[in-house]
Amino acid sequence: MSHRITRGVSLYSFQEEFFLRTMTVRDAVAVAAKIGALDIEIIPEQSIPGFPHVSDEWVRDWHDTMAEFGTRPLAYDFFLDTLRHPGRRLTHDEQVASVRRDVDLAVRLGTTKLRAIISTPAEVLRDAAPYAEEAGVQLLLEVHAPFHYAHPWVLRHLEVMDALDSPALGFMPDLGCFVERFPRVASERALREGARPEVVDLVVKTYDDHGDVHGLMDTVNYLGGGPVEVGLARQATHYTWRDPRMLLEQIHRTHHVQAKFYEMTDEGTEYSIPYDRIVDVLVEGGFSGCLSSEYEGNRHIQDAHPVDSVEQVTRHHAMLERLLARHEN
Amino acid sequence: MFEKYVIVPGTLRNVVEDGRTTGFELGVRMPYYRGLGLSMVEDVAVTVDGVRAAPERTTFTVHGNSYPLTGLGEVVEDRWELGEVATVAVAHPGGLAPGMHDVEVSQRLRISYMPVPGGGRARAAVELSA
Fold first, then answer.
1. Would you tell me how many other CB atoms lie within 10 Å of the CB of residue A81?
2. Which ipTM was obtained for this model?
3. Chain B CB contacts of A86 below 8 Å
4. What is the span of the domain harbouring residue B54?
């Protein structure tokens, strides 16, 4: 079976380097081009100084950079700051206006897919959808752990999508929903921070056995756990393991995939997420979109090790290329 | 996340105005992966040698714009950018003594998608720079 899947990179992957000013957006796009990750996803609030006031000059440079490296603007990750003002939430209309502002900027950047952060209410996307449709872009709810397609919050979105039947609405699953093994980078950090090895083992084993992680915080507390140990137990409830075949359920509404990863090993595989099976399922389902790399390991190793996002993303794409090649005739 | 980089080395110094030492300042980064509107920065608590700087005597400056720490909640049109070094200045006549100081910075950020406050705590032994 052949596939119609492209490879891309979210600039989120290079947050360590952006933070420390050791790489620019242009540097990151150059890396993406070099490894054949031609679709670019951006978090404007991370990468564009002065957001949401974005100068024409910045936008021109962005398009020049894309042209120079042969890359394509693809996705735009928005946040919805419902708590922008102390003491009150944004009203519904203010939230819709915030999404419309992001649609306008996405159009300027040439990105056709907007990552709607999981916390976006279904009614907000419903009322922003006509504007997005008019603009020719899509608002895609990120299905992010610990959420899943059968979660009440996501079911509400499904109701809206069913009722509205707009081409502007859909999903972009985050592969952090498919963490089969507890990320080693997280458990090792807890050990460095003083967690007792037997407590770490309990958390990791419970997770890896796909046991009752929701009891872990209490159990660790009863074992006299300190903040690091309880924190690790809490993390175990934030990762989720689901069979990748659940992706098939909404594949017709899936227009982008945030290819989260925590650690590419020296052997060229992701330590905790079964990318081989995931890619097979996406191909089987006829997914036509981008696998957009999201390196999230930096936060777990930066206390003790130099972060090399370029190396991690490069390894990730070598893996994706290999897995996709199995489906090329 | 990014706690390691919150306290910027070499930025703790006394503030001298008209020949008098009126306080001290410190460069601080936000432990978060995007820029955030200042109205959502609930607190940047600086504690030196165990004494927390009074919020009403603290000024917060980003890219040349200064605000009283206690007034950040009203600032919806300015942001603290990703990785940007903000200057937190504390009015403290006489300033800090030369030498090493135990510095702690505790930040509380109102991040809409998180059910609990975000932010983080960083602590370091920092030498007062001239």
1. 23
2. 0.95
3. 39, 42, 73, 110
4. 3-128
